[in-house]
Write a structure and sequence with these properties.
By secondary structure, the protein is mostly beta strands. It is built from one helix and eight strands.
Amino acid sequence: MRMRNLSIFEAVMIGAVLAGPAVAQTCSFTTECFDGDGCSETSFSFEIETEGGATRLVSDAETIPLSQGGSDETRVYVGVTESAFHLLTHSAEGEARYSTHIYDGPLMLNYLGRCEVAG
């Protein structure tokens, strides 16, 4: 039996199908707590995208590769960049906490809000 070579287009399409569809969550935060200075209202959001086994936090400022864990009740995402450590937790009901620890300082920002499946 002779096998034919796949075209680049066919290979890409097969790869996309096997990788599975992209899943996105939108996380929106309404409270920001700045280090030891207390909390205030804010409007901050980003997307958590999962595609082909890779998960990343995508904001206007940067894209951060994430590791994920937790359970069906509470998801945990961790990202490490050259400038900060990032931690996101959210419940199955969508309640979310996002914390970033900036190395230069050191400085900590905490956010309270919600994550929901986009769409």
